[in-house]
Write a structure and sequence with these properties.
Protein name: TIGR03086 family protein
Pfam family, one: MDMPI_N
CATH class: Mainly Alpha
Distance between the termini: 29 Å
Strand content: under 5%
Strand order of the largest sheet: 1-2
Number of strands: 2
Largest sheet: 2 strands, antiparallel
CATH topology: Four Helix Bundle (Hemerythrin (Met), subunit A)
Structural class: mainly alpha
InterPro entries: CHP03086 (IPR017520), Maleyloyr_isom (IPR017517), MDMPI_metal-binding (IPR024344)
């Protein structure tokens, strides 16, 4: 599980590093996010995930992520990479996956948060890669981990408006393509 989380964190960091600040105003596959807003959202998710692993209860606040707030956009990738390293380290501790913790102020099983965030980082890495025209190299193992974590919550995500309607994929689609489709993303989008 921790390796999968680290793998998807790496995907997110690679996608952020591949985003040219000149394109920060561009749209993404997430209708509510420009490239800059999506990077800010990923930065917030990285910080919340670290705090969840450390069993910290923190209020959710709207607005710019403390990870990138006040920084020049050219410095966002470095700030996100630094936060990503702290998040990966926190979830590398096997105890982070045990028992209960909080996502912001919401109590949840730690393993559920870990699984949700593993999917979150991978899916938003894909969104960012598509928006910026960059490749995203997802290993079969990470694709399967994301699919395994996503399937149990996909309907809840659709009901909550986080995911779109499931997209059909051809027979023989990879686990990663199935995960994208389950979240309402078209794996063929470029």
């Amino acid at each position: 599980m921790a390796n999968d989380m680290s793998g998807t964190i790496d995907l997110a960091v690679a996608a952020i590093r591949g985003a040219d600040p000149a394109r920060f105003g561009d749209p993404t596959p997430c209708p509510d996010f420009t490239v800059a807003a999506l990077i800010d959202h990923i930065a917030s998710a990285l910080l919340l995930a670290e705090r969840s692993a450390k069993r910290e209860i923190v209020p959710w606040t709207e607005g710019a992520s403390p990870v990138v707030a006040g920084l020049d956009e050219k410095d966002w990738a470095h700030a996100c990479a630094t936060q990503a390293a702290a998040t990966a380290t926190a979830w590398d501790d096997p105890a982070a996956w045990d028992g209960d913790t909080h996502m912001a102020e919401t109590p949840m099983p730690a393993a559920m948060i870990g699984s949700l965030m593993t999917a979150e980082f991978a899916l938003h890495a894909w969104d960012l890669a598509v928006a910026t025209g960059k490749p995203l190299d997802v290993t079969p193992e990470v694709g399967q981990a994301v699919l395994d974590g996503l399937v149990p919550i996909a309907q809840m995500g659709r009901d909550g408006g986080w995911f779109g309607a499931e997209v059909s994929v051809p027979e023989g689609a990879s686990a990663w393509e199935k995960a994208l489709a389950a979240s309402g993303r078209d794996p063929a989008a470029r």
